[in-house]
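pls read this protein:
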Amino acid sequence: MGRKETSLTEIEAFVDANWEEVVADITRLVAIPSIEGDPAPGAPFGTEPLRAMHCALGIAKRLGFSVRDDEGYVGIADLPGESDKVIAMIGHVDVVPVADSWDTDPFTVVRREGYLLGRGTLDDKGPVVVGLYALKFFAERDGRAPYTLRMIVGSNEETDLRDVAYYVEHYGSPAFLFTPDATFPVCYGEKGHYTGDFLSAPIRNGTVLQLDCGIASNVIPDKATALVDADIATLPTADGIELAAEDDHVRITAHGIGGHASLPQGTVNAIAELAAYLLDGNVLDKDEIPFFDFVRTIGTSTDGFAMGIAAHDDIFGPLTCIVGMLGIENGRFRLNVNIRYPLAITGDTITASLTERIGRIGGTYTPGKDSKPFYVDPEGREIQTLLNAYIDVTGKKDAKPFTMGGGTYAGHFENAASFGPEEPDGPMPDWVGTMHGPNEGMSEDLLKRAMKVYILAIERLLRLDF
């Protein structure tokens, strides 16, 4: 680009001038309960994720992009450049399910004391809208950019990532891409993302009649419920446990502290709390005890040590392991596990160890998704361009690129990074929840700052030779 670099003052003026529109568009997008549903014609992930994708594309079209829906898998919004080479952003408009522990309607944005509350305000509808407006900055310039600028709108990130698999198969990798679905300053590597399911031996005449535990594999549950065949008068009281008589049965509800599967520190897994109560309260039949002892063990050992899979390296740090869902299926208990692993261990090793552990009590194990760790050179020009844009906007001269346990779209492309909008260890009021948790919320000031960073970073990426 031949023009002089835009000043931060100009960028700030653009952000301020557009901010109320940004909030209005986030509100429109959050209002769509875009949880994965049954596939339908043109809607492989259900009608609500498709509706959210179309809403995002409608915003993009209004902002000056050319847009298209590619068979319901991905939405594409382009600002054509002088070259067909693409510099892209990618975000998602699907969301995880909601529990009933919200203080507000999760699909109605509440604007409170500088925060936006609602499912997707942080993960990832708010950042998608912020990214679109960052690209709008370039749509309003005279002349074309040297490369095509693109926003890829996904709608299956929270479950199977079939949207990004479709995109890569049909379009390949852009020259460079970043996703606004993580934390600043810039992430250059992601742990491997691994899931699987344990199945108990058949249970006959058991005490546990129903289980309602967890809403998604990648969510640490804050509530877990069991309906048991018992007399409420015989059951002990315990902290964090609610007991309610239902006819001749008892509904036992365990409460914990929820969060994202990749960040178990500071959480309390309600599934593990429920298992502990059932065991310690002598609620279970003898045939149920081995599996629930297994549940408690794996649910409280978030480093994987109890399962023989603890691992650590200098790039990614330690493996993390959580249980996300527990239910009953055809007379057996099914437990889902979600693991984020470093380069020091492989998915095959994890599978072998988990299979052996559950085999000790007569159960079986079925591995699910295994996305290997993602890593790019932190000293490479693209990562350094993003990092320096962040430093220049924030003044945080000690900022360093990092790796994380969360999985994003970046790991599916050849040259990519995850880039904000959250800040590391940013203080929040106690009424603001985290991504995937109840009362999910995001600071308006941080979203504004992210837009400034994105504009400056994109301007500098356009000056690189791809």
Q: What stands out?
A: The two ends are 13 Å apart (CA to CA). The mean pLDDT is 95. The longest helix spans residues 8-30.
